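Bench notes, afternoon.
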Amino acid sequence: MDSFILCGMQFGDEGKGTFVDYLAHEKNIDGVVRYNGGSQASHTVITPSKIIHKFSQLGSGMFLDKCHTYLTENTVINLENLIVEMEVFSEKTGISISDLLDRIHIHENCYVVTPYHKLINKLRELSKGENRRGTVGTGVSEVRYLLAEPKLSPYEQPLGLQVKDIFNPHSNNPVISRMQALQNYVNNFFRENEDLIWQNVPKEITESLKKEIAFLLAPNAFFNIASIYITKFKYATRDVNFSKCIYNSYELSLRKNCQSVIFEGSQGLLIDGKYGIKPNTTFLDTTNHFALDISYYRNNITKIGIAKAFTSRHGLGVFPTETIDVSSRICDNNQEESFWNGKIRFGWFDAILFRYAQSINQVDELYLSSLDKLDDFETIKVCNEYCYNGIVDEKFKTIFSYFALPDGQIVITDIKEYSEDLGMYLEKCVPKYIVVEGWLCDTSNVSDKNSLPKKCLEYIELLEKLTNIHISIVSVGPTRENKIRM
């Protein structure tokens, strides 16, 4: 049977959850594999009966009764949040916690977010002031960052905790020593950066941060936190027994239970830890590469890219096509603004950045979301070139395809390869737009390709031409019933 790998091709928030829900029901999928990311990236799904759920760690196909969730070792898991998500989903759907547990499978090598990861995430951001990365403060990205840190004396423990550490059946359980090492690291960082941190803390979070620091950095706090992990999760004091969910082999688990699978990606390629536009990126892998690695034994894999019909970005960072023309007319009620994650920003579709994402993810087809958000625009723009207003040095020449106009103006046509300096150059770029007429009619009730307005179909064809990818599904609303096969 067919299987699918879905990945975001922009800055995230492309609508991956709603397409997973659609595909799961259309193809009667057996399982959803969360192959990257963690609990910081929620995927909103709205059912035809208007039940709304933000899938944080559960696969976004779980409204389908037969569908299972697989959390791979390339994901970062927050066990406390997973319990809460199961309880919320159970209340909304009537599915018992016990039945949900039968449909959840967690790889034993998953790394776990602890309170110390969440705290160091906030402290590191605050220590950077205006140069902060723009993390959402959940500690997920910090888990990967700390794994690269050297072991700490005197404990000689990695700065990370895996699922198998918590559920270790032997007496030499490493949870306490790992928590002690984490506390030591966080405490040292806080003492070294304390003045900077308090200079940059906004008033609205000052008191809560003080309490968090006092609680987690108290002398014996690491032991108390470790004890909670051991008793709450290992011995299931909340009637949530994760022990039966743990697995250690993709082939044994996926082949046994799943003929058809959706590999559900998190976030977007443009904020990837390796290929994203620095410095405002995650430390996580947001490509589809890990999904390809673990799906090697499957036939009929389709790689699907997800993108909005325009572009949006949550929080800080370079955004060449951001414009008030779009931001003032589009809103997303599912994206909350806070000090940590900032606000959602909007701009026109950027074909240059999309082609760059495609050079890395190499998807076979594209699903286009939020097409209906453009229904009221008299004209719609697409960026296919940049005017560059900086110095053309040797590094620039290796990164970009470009040409010079007779007046000397430099025009960028493509990004040839990744560089950590990519963002620095993009800050000096001004988009050149292709402008087309809008369709000026409501598409939210359209269910068939032939009923879409001519101008709408022309816009879709333009994006296909500029991205060189077939757009196979478009979304004109939030539910699985609002998807149109092209």
